[in-house]
Amino acid sequence: MFSASSQALSAYGWDGDLEQAFAPYRETGLVPARIAAVDRGRCDVITEAGPMRADTAPVASPDPLESPCTGDWAALRTGDHPAVAALLPRRTAIVRAAASGESRGQVLAANVDTVAVTVSLAEPIDLGRIERLLALAWESGARPVVVLTKADRLADPAAEHARLEEVAAVAPGADVVSCSAADGTGIDVVTAVLTGTVVLLGVSGAGKSTLGNALLGADVLATGAVRVQDGKGRHTTVRRELLPLPGGGVLIDTPGLRGVGLIDAADGLQQTFADVEDLASDCRFNDCAHDSEPGCAVLAAVEAGELPSRRLDSYRKLLRENDWIASRGDARLRAEREGRYKEISRSLRQRYKIEGKKR
Fold first, then answer.
1. Which parts of the chain register pLDDT below 70?
2. Torsion-angle region of residue 117: left (phi > 0), alpha (psi -120 to 50) or beta?
3. Which of 201, 245, 266, 294 has its CA at 20 to 30 Å from residue 5's CA atom?
4. Residues at the annotated binding site for GTP?
5. What is the predicted pLDDT for the residue at 352?
6. How far apart, in whole angstroms, are the C-alpha atoms of residue 223 and residue 227?
7. In the chain, which residues fall in CATH 2.40.50.140?
8. Which positions, given as ranges, span the membrane (predicted)?
9. Please, are residues 247 and 241 in contact by the beta-carbon 8 Å criterion?
10. What is the DSSP string of 194-232?
C-alpha cells in the first residue's frame, strides 16, 4: 500500500514498490514527483498537489545518462523555489548513442513500459530502421510494439496485410498492429496493446503526434504536414513530454529521430534478431562470424531462402556498430582514468615542491 497523498500520482504510474523506494525521502520532508518535461535547467513535474516547475540544478550531471529525463521519478523539495533533490532508480531507460557521435549515451525516456515503434504506411517500409528501433526498445527493458500508421493511405486491404506480414517477419516477439488516426480504424486495437507508460518512437512524418492525439482523445499534440517533395515530416514535437491517457497509463511523445545510434545494445540485438541467433546456435563453430565459415547454419539458411540476405546484412551492420561504440566507450574511460592519474600526480608534485621550499 502507499500513502493516501500519493493516490493522485497513481494515474502516472505510482505504485507500492515506488512508495517503498521513496520512504527515506518522505521522512526528510521531500515529496514524490514524476518529470514530465525537461528544458534548460528546469523541468515540469507532476506532484501529489498538481503540476509545477522545478529547478534541476541539484541533480545536474556532466554525464547525460545521469541527468534528469522525461519519465523519471524524483524526490522534490517544495517551497518558494521547488527543486529536484534526487532521482529514484530507473526501472527501464531508452538509451541511444549521442547524436554528436560521442561514445556517451543519451536517455530518451525513463521508466517506460511499452515502446511504440511508429512507422508510416504512406511511405516505403524501411526494415533496417525498424530493426534498429526494435533493438533500442528491447535493450531498454520495455516491451516493443510496432504500430503501422496511416493505413487509410492504402486503398487495397491486401497491401496492408502484406505490409503487416513483412514487418512481423523482422519483429520476432513483438506485436505488430496497423491503424488510421484519420478515420479511427484500428485505434481500439492499438489502445489495447499499448499499456502503462508508453513512448512513441519514429522518424518525423511517421504520424506519432497524430496517433498520440487519437490515443489521448483530444488534439493536445502539435501535428504537421509531410513535405510533398521528399515525403519527410517536419519536427512538430520539439521536446519530450508526458501526458495521462484517458484509459489509464501515460504517453510520452518524442521528437522525430533523424538517426538512432545503438550503444551497449547486445541484449537488444539478440532479441531483435532472435531468428538469426537461433540459427547461429547450430553453427559448427561457437565463434562463427556467419561470413564464409564451413558449417555455418546461418549462411545455409540464406542459401536455402529461409533467411533473407538483407536481414543477415542488417544483423552484421548493427553488431559492428554496437561493437565500435563500445570500443570508443572503453577508450574514453581509459583516457578519463589517465587524465585523473595525471592530475593527481601533478597535485602531488606541486605539494612536494611547496613542502620542500618550507624546509
1. 1-6, 98-103, 222-239, 258, 328-359
2. beta
3. 245
4. 149-152, 202-210
5. 55
6. 13
7. 4-87
8. none
9. no
10. --SEEEEE--TTS-HHHHHHHHHTS--S---PBPTTT-P
User: What is the reported pLDDT for 328?
Assistant: 65
Q: Cell for 205?
A: 512524418
Task: Please report, in range form, the residues annotated as the binding site for Zn(2+).
Answer: 283, 288, 290, 296
Q: Percentage of the chain surpassing pLDDT 70?
A: 82
- Would you list which residues are annotated within the binding site? 149-152, 202-210, 283, 288, 290, 296
Element (H, E) at 114: strand 114-120
- pLDDT reported for residue 226: 47
At 325 the pLDDT is: 79
Superfamily of domain 93-253: P-loop containing nucleotide triphosphate hydrolases (3.40.50.300)
Report d(CA 137, CA 93) in Å as an integer: 9
Task: State the pTM of this model.
Answer: 0.84
The residue whose grid cell reads 484519420 is: 182
Give span(s): CATH 3.40.50.300, the chain. Answer: 93-253
pLDDT score for 281? 94
Q: What is the DSSP letter of 234?
A: P
Dist CA 226 CA 182 (whole Å): 14
Judge residue 197's burial from the number of C-beta atoms within 10 Å of its C-beta, 0-12 exposed, 13-18 middle, 19 or more buried: buried
Cell numbers placing 264: 551497449
Crossing angle between the packed helical segments 127-140 and 157-168, to the nearest 10 degrees: 50
Q: What is the largest CA-CA distance in the chain?
A: 92
Q: Which CATH number is associated with domain 4-87?
A: 2.40.50.140
DSSP codes joined into one string, 308-357: -HHHHHHHHHHHHHHHHHHHHHHHHHHHHHHHHHHHHHHHHHHHHHHHHH
